[in-house]
């Protein structure tokens, strides 16, 4: 691969002159020298080292983003919003997947800081982990001291700009909807306990049930990974422990898709025999059969706002934007069945041993 020195030699100029031509420097270069350098670039098929250019510039052009998993529809939608603003402003987006590993997130903060990104966005949930939070804040403070900008999406114990989806209000909407439909035996498939997102959504749901005189005992909550397989497995465990459930709340839509698969495998009709309610309103929610009733968060707009905060004019005090949740009624949540799980002439409501396909 040709180097800058190779180009300079071929053009018969100094490396500094070749660099000025290639990088579009404002310093004057004669037309004849410019043509010689560009001809050498074409002949040698020279490609500039983007990392070296980044380090040489006083203007940082890249933005680092740490997500839990960009293949997760939740983060894919947020990333669409981030990318939209970054592209409009001519910025390069560097995306890192932490896979919900706190240690990996700390490593990525250091890595992105080493790449001298202009801004850093933490797009995943915060953690209930004091040691991790302390280390993260120390690293972010060191990065901000060099002029870097930081924003978070979700609830983090970090003093700075934040875009906060109203997860607690969303959980409350889900609980109020099911109570209004007459449900009392409600099970919950929740994400990992360590995530603040799980805590907030569950707290809102529990508040709604309490206000309506319902209980949510721990035996009706199953914690799993925030994905389809986690939802399918958690739903199976819920049904095995409590066959009389009339509704299942999944704390994200991927888990809800897994819940529907388990219920279908066990011969349970949704919503005639059991209701399902999701959270996030990812694109596939409207396309599954039956279409998923869920709580909608403005995922793309969350990304837009976070990127706008870090690339816009700074503020003397932290800015926190809370974005609302709304209930989207589709086809998976209905009135509580008038009978128990098994009714005469109908399919049994709970069949042990079924697996989700």
UniProtKB/TrEMBL annotation:
GO terms for molecular function: DNA-binding transcription factor activity; transcription cis-regulatory region binding. Residues 331-357 are annotated as: Disordered. It comes from the Bacteria. It holds the Pfam family Peripla_BP_1. InterPro entries: HTH_LacI, Lambda_DNA-bd_dom_sf, Peripla_BP/Lac1_sug-bd_dom, Peripla_BP_I. Keywords: DNA-binding, Transcription, Transcription regulation. Residues 2-57 form the HTH lacI-type domain. The keyword Cell wall biogenesis/degradation does not apply. Coiled coil: none annotated. This is LacI family transcriptional regulator. It comes from Micromonospora inaquosa.
